[in-house]
Amino acid sequence: MCELGKRLKESREAKGLEIAQVAEVLKVRRVILEALEDCRFDELPEPALARGYLKRYAQLLGLDPAPLLALYPIGTPEPVGPVGSTPTTPSPQTSSPSSIGWLWLIPLVLLLGVLGWLGLRALNPPSTPTPVQTTPTPVTPPPPQQISLRIATQPPGARVYLDGFLLGQAPLEARVEAGERTLRIEASGYQKYEQVLTLQSDRNLSFALTPVPPAPAPSFPQPPAPGTTPPTNPTTPTPTAGLVLRLEGTSWIRVTDARTGRQLYEGTVSSGTQLSYPLPVVVRAGNAGAVRVIVNGQDRGRMGSVGQVVALRYGQ
């Protein structure tokens, strides 16, 4: 499996999505998504259409499409044209008598020459040049440039992600592709750090994470760190203000502050878990039928059907 397909498949599985669910949301045939994940590019439609499918797939999974589009192979056909030569028409040759007395033979000789030429042309019609077809030589793009990335954090042991994929725990050193990449660092009890880096040469980076400040009282419960499963407490009463998400099954969920765009939570949540957030927020669920929504104490029912990917805004 190539790097492109590996990223798509790992991101989809990390969100708990089946390929059939993704195909239904994107309105794309399942075989096209399977061909992208398995890197069977010869089974995809024309490059412009296939790259459009790839971009929409990446956006649905929350990935930056640009690095994935850079991995998609591009072929440049060579121009072809008919090869042949235009047949030349022989010109009849005539001879002139040296004696003026034989001048009456000139028209007869010319007539015989024309008749002979027409007879030969009828027996051997000129052939049409046959175009010579050549097979285009595919142009293989050069492999992406690799650079060395070293990362140290305070405190040590923080999880380091690049374009949403886990590199490991700091301190670490890894070989990554050059270009514009999104770096994310997470540690329990510390605020998440995220930055877009332009990597063109080897980099040695160090980050000091900011501790999460204690929540003032009264306040909504502090959401768990992205990528982790929030604690389950069946005895916690349901808040009468704000948004409450009550899980009646397992689903991947992302919660974003609707005013600032700041991500409040992202991860796979198990059945029986209850999450609370102040309004307004945008909620995206990978299994909408497992998420019951309560807004300001009013039960709004489930977000959608089982297996359906839904994104809704709650609050003004």
Describe the structure.
- The relative contact order is 0.10.
- The chain has helices spanning 3-14, 19-26, 30-37, 47-60, 65-71, 105-123, and strands spanning 146-154, 159-162, 165-169, 172-177, 179-186, 193-199, 203-208, 243-247, 251-257, 263-269, 274-277, 281-285, 291-295, 298-302, 310-314.
- It is elongated, with a radius of gyration of 36 Å.
- α4 runs antiparallel to α5.
- The strands form four sheets. It has a four-stranded antiparallel beta sheet with strand order 3-2-5-6, with no helix packed on it. Strands 11-8-13-14 form a four-stranded antiparallel beta sheet, with no helix packed on it. Strands 10-9-12-15 form a four-stranded antiparallel beta sheet, with no helix packed on it.
- Among the domains are: 3-71, 434 Repressor (Amino-terminal Domain) (Orthogonal Bundle); 146-208, Sandwich (Immunoglobulin-like), CATH 2.60.40; 243-314, no CATH class.
- Mean pLDDT is 80; it is low at 76-98, 217-221 and 231-235.
- It has 316 residues and is an alpha+beta fold.
Which keywords apply here?
alpha+beta, Immunoglobulin-like, 434 Repressor (Amino-terminal Domain), single chain, four-stranded antiparallel beta sheet, 6 helices, 316 residues
Quote the distance from N terminus to C terminus: 45 Å
Q: Largest sheet, order of strands side by side?
A: 3-2-5-6
Number of strands: 15
Q: Which class best fits the helix and strand makeup? A: alpha+beta
- How many helices does DSSP assign? 6
Question: How confident is the prediction overall: mean pLDDT?
Answer: 80
- Give unreliable regions as ranges: 76-98, 217-221, 231-235
Shape: elongated
Main sheet attributes: strand count, strand direction, barrel closure: 4 strands, antiparallel
What's the helix-strand series? HHHHHHEEEEEEEEEEEEEEE
- Global Rg: 36 Å
How much beta, percentage-wise?
25-35%
Helix content: 10-25%
